[in-house]
Amino acid sequence: LTVAGDFTTSGGLLGASCLELVNSGTPEEAEYAETADNPAGTAVADKTIECWVKTNGDTNAGICSKGTATTNLGYMLFILGDGTVRFNMDQSDGTPAKVDSTTLVNDNKWHHIAGVYDAGTDVRIYVDGKLEGVSTTDIESAALNHTAGIIIGGLDEAGYYLTGAIDEVRLWDSVRTPALLRADMFQGGTLANSTSLIGRWK
Known about the structure:
Elements: E1 2-4, E2 8-10, E3 18-21, E4 32-34, E5 47-54, E6 61-67, E7 74-79, E8 85-90, E9 97-100, E10 111-118, E11 122-127, E12 130-135, E13 151-152, E14 164-172, H1 178-184, E15 197-201
Antiparallel strand pairs: 1-4, 2-3, 3-14, 4-13, 5-10, 5-14, 6-7, 6-13, 7-8, 8-9, 10-11, 11-12, 14-15
């Protein structure tokens, strides 16, 4: 895990600490973390990306991402201008499959967010263990054309960095069902089921 900026850690929701980010300056001063690339995160397959996030009033900010917003190549959890969360997934053509939550998450409370991609079928978004949206529009199953690591607290481009706290980021090479999400969302230690877990950062 590579970090940038003068970030801090503080008491996390589930563990000893979480990533605390303040991003009000220039892009050169941005605070975020980036994981190493993992080929399993790029392969054509089901995906689930999930984390806990807490932010107060932040909008138009990346929570976790592998890709960019301008080219729409990759996948990401992103806080929109109205405070809801969007899950984007695009494998090749620059037109993303996307689904939005109904819950506002920029209320200075901890929220569990999960974006699920069922390859070739649909994208789904969960907030606090509840399904809030499903979309079958522009679902693809081509290879993901983006080989960078996962950005925690922003996107792979300037201007979309989060101010807030992030904890327990997990990437799975599978479709996590509501039961699986709920079984592990409060686990800061050993997970009930870690099959198909690609990466975990806490």
